[in-house]
Amino acid sequence: MLIVSANMGQGHNATGRALEDAIRRRWPGATVRWVNALERLGPGFEGLFQRIYVANVESVPWLYEFFYGAIWRIPWFAAASRWFTAAWCGRRLAKPLAEFAPDLVLSTYPMGTAGLAWLRRKGKLSAPIGAWVSDFAPHPFWVYGAADLTMVMHDVAVEPALRSSPSAHVGVSAPPVRAVFRPGDQGAARQELGLPPDAFVPLVSCGSLGFGEIETTVRELLAADPSVVPIAICGRNDAVADRLRALNEPRLHVVGWTDQPERYTLAADVVVTNAGGATSLEALACGRPVLMHRPIAAHGKANARLMAAAGLALVSTKDGELADTVRGLLAEPHRLKEMAEAVARHCETATPLEEALESLVSAPLNPPTQRLRPEDALFVHVATPEVPQQVGAVLVFDPKADGTPVTRADAEHLLAATPGLRTRLLPGSGLWRARWQEDPGRTSADVLTSVRVGPDAPLDAALTEEMDAFFSEPVSPEHPVRARLVTGIEGEQGALLIALHHAASDGIAVISALVGQARGKEPLVPAAVPRRRGWRSRLSAGWGALARGAVGGGRRSGVLGGASVSAAGGAGAGDVSRADELAAGGVAVGGVGGASVSAVGGVAGGASGSAVDGDAGGASSPSPIEPTARAGGGRMDEASPASLGRNGSRPGPGAVRAGLARLAAPVRGVLARVAGPVWHGLDRPSGAAGGSGVAETVRPNSSAGGKTQAAELVRGVWTLARAGAAPRVRWDKRIDGPQRHFARAHLSAPEVRKAARRAGVPTTNLVLALVAEALHRELGGTAPDQLRVLIPMSVRDTGTFRQLGNHTGAASVDLPTAAMSLPERVRETDRMLSEQVGRGAPRAGNAVVRVLGVLPPALHRRAAKLVYRGTWFSVIASVLPGARSPVVLNGALVRTVYPVLSLAPGVPVAVGIMTWADRFTVCITVPSAHEDRADRLAAAVVEAFGWL
Q1: pTM for this one?
Q2: What local confidence, expressed as pLDDT, does residue 802 receive?
């Protein structure tokens, strides 16, 4: 074990000694070594830093306050300071770490933790890293996500620790002090020290350096009441000790440096200090409340604020306040008793040192963070307290064959495949992009609650009440998945309500994951994050390939949307029926108003998925893609090895092209960071959503294919640009809070398909025409001729059909809401949808979102809020594919699934539609204040279909 500390006072070393004691209790044969982080910085730096610290506290506290405040207020300053400190200290710690090769590394000093975190990020430290924050208040220099465990001193310190580094794994530690600091016999301690048994004894201790106005503090205590008998420990400050002894006060007990401070702490009623570091922790370990008097600048004041918030300390900052505080405690003894009880509760509930060390050794390392894709980060940026971005699903189960309902164990099994279950979302800031991090310890049991609504509760009423209550409580980035199992519904039916942050995944992935889990399929996987290579390594590889003529061998590979894909990794679930491929994560082909569209789990019929129906434009499963081209280079040919050596042999043309391509890689890498989002859209295979509907060999650089895709993207961008603001809708758009109401309906799927065939339109277009009719009826005479509806559409392809996240574009379609007959409205809806999708709007929307991701984080956040709001659309509508054959979970049939959509700022209506077994399910989301509107819209959809 290696302990990294520093001689900055004795607080950091005291914490290290406590950890060493715990190590020896848990692993008696362990070898423990220490490293002084300040000493490792170089000759003279330790003394320099000590002098600077003392000068800051005693002479220029305003400068110390300024620096401490700056690392909280000015993000770029904190980031630059942390980076410099971490790199400096990390390089200096590398040698002792390499020589000792510890199994566990513990840090009790901020710069040491920074250096260890730097080494972890550089791949030079694989041993677990534990950081103990010996101050009560953590600050940005204390906390790093690359540390595997950061232990703070109280629950109230967790929030500022995570604010310092959102990716950190933070726990609450018992006071890290030596075992001698523990509750004991106060009377025996006083007798041993010669103190009166009935006196009020405050212990004044200001750390090993004796900082602060100790004399003034002692005088106030002596003046508070004749029963007060102070003890003053002056540490190494002999000058202060001499001045106090010169007072010749018989009640005052002056102590210089002592190796047994626990004796005095046990004898005291309270501990008076001004820093909140090791002295305060020792007091808490002994069960003694703390009086913080005139806390020192910066971290001392921050410690005082948090200790007071935790109920463990009282703070006095002005002359006379300490004396008043002591008089108050003497007059109201119950206040002192309440503080002592709060101290005892904290020490009982905090994690013991041995347990924390055990978890460091046995638990997985804290996973690194990964950047959120722009399509996912969009929903982090646009979320507000009033309009949280959460989507979900409601699954209704029939009872099992033996008459029993679905169980909690069944629900946990299904939830284990939920996208984002083990994810933490890190929203980022003006300097840092939104990121995500895996939480390997989280299980489905952690996110699932259950409720029994009573024996034989009516299905519709019980489900509505539970949905409104459950989805009105938004998920958080820290816990982006929630679920509730509802039982006690009539006929032993059950319901599983699942909510997840929209940044975690889109509806396609959610349904695919849940259905796949029920059918025992492999879970979905997150998108691969390629590691970046430096320009020097790429340059070297380019020269090497040019010299050797090495143009690859074995398996041929290509690039799909910027990610390398091997020919063996093609899509296809040929062993499942086409009707269920979407739900299982397979590939299907459908049509959009006469135009053939291929979608992976995704898009057809102008919305998120009539491909499941197979009614519009014939459908067949595409063959697996065999990519044979590389973006930026032509087709890769199998080249025989060649060399350029003394015999004068020359490489073949393929080798030269490959070598030059690698030489150009640094330039292309820079350009890709700027234009990559657009190139990604252009490089999609023709079998992707919006393509020809037939999977072909991918040749992104072929002249005809590239021109076609470029033209489609240009048409789509032009379509989006000319659309302008949405037509004005005269209804209440206010969304005052996260409370929601949900209205549900369902239509017979066979009847919908029959009606669509009679009308000669895809089923999705028919269903959206019914939505347009319902909106017309709701708006009445104030209905505009057209109402702008945002229709999310999948752009998944064979390279992304098994990936989590949002792989969607969007078409903003002006649905006809003017007065007209229903058959006419169906034809107009079909025409408008076909025009929008045929012009490439979904792919263009996806490309625009990706391009926005190139902007600096602050601008990206503002741009996202600008484009995703009610200015540009008035309703959200999405048609999701489901399973047409039965889905059974451990014997319980999934009878119905309702998709739950989120609203957008200024958009008070969202309509989710899903094909499931023998029905189309409809779920309408509105603010809870608009409850009647949702119910009328759902009824109008059913009524319009009945008329049709």
Answers
A1: 0.75
A2: 58
